[in-house]
């Protein structure tokens, strides 16, 4: 949706080792108008409220494309892009879940549309934080999940980062059918058991 993703390396530095199981709360590479940055995956909700005016209590790792420009919880956030080699989804029952690895069919990088801000904590701490944006699934994903991350083509990154809201909103659509490959994966592939 994504809830876990992986990166083969080489985004921040050519000699960077692969990261095979990136989870919410981890530091990730993010592209912004100010250039590449490292951010915590997950928006800390301090000061954010829902439509009823109540505090948002959970960390937000994904924002829905249908409401990201309208919810007060996302007021003041800026746009970013999260590069990835692919992501994981699971199907099946607890303790019998099947892990699926999803990548671009052409082997290229995936660029997830995202939002970010900087949380100001006690004692002057600043935490740059990011959440990816989700949309309805493309044909390949529909069988395993009801949502997927918004995937931008590399040429669309400047439109997402710098365009007005109308231009950016037009990019929040499912990836083209046939553009992704889905294959079974197991815990040995990622070095961490299925949660």
How are the SSEs ordered, and which strands pair?
Elements: E1 4-7, E2 19-22, E3 27-32, E4 35-41, E5 62-64, E6 78-84, E7 86-91, E8 98-104, E9 110-120, E10 126-135, H1 139-142, E11 148-149, E12 151-152, H2 157-162, H3 165-169, E13 180-185, H4 187-190
Parallel strand pairs: 4-10, 5-10
Antiparallel strand pairs: 1-2, 1-7, 3-4, 6-9, 7-8, 8-13, 9-10, 9-12, 10-11
Structure description:
The chain is mostly beta strands. It has one domain: Alpha-Beta Complex (hypothetical protein yedk fold). Helix content is 10%, strand content 38%. It has helices at 139-142, 157-162, 165-169, 187-190, and strands spanning 4-7, 19-22, 27-32, 35-41, 62-64, 78-84, 86-91, 98-104, 110-120, 126-135, 148-149, 151-152, 180-185. Strands 3, 4, 5, 6, 9, 10, 11 and 12 form an 8-stranded mixed β-sheet that branches. β9 and β10 form a beta hairpin. The longest helix has 6 residues, at 157-162. The protein is globular and about 45 Å long. The two termini are 15 Å apart. The model has no long low-confidence stretch (mean pLDDT 88).
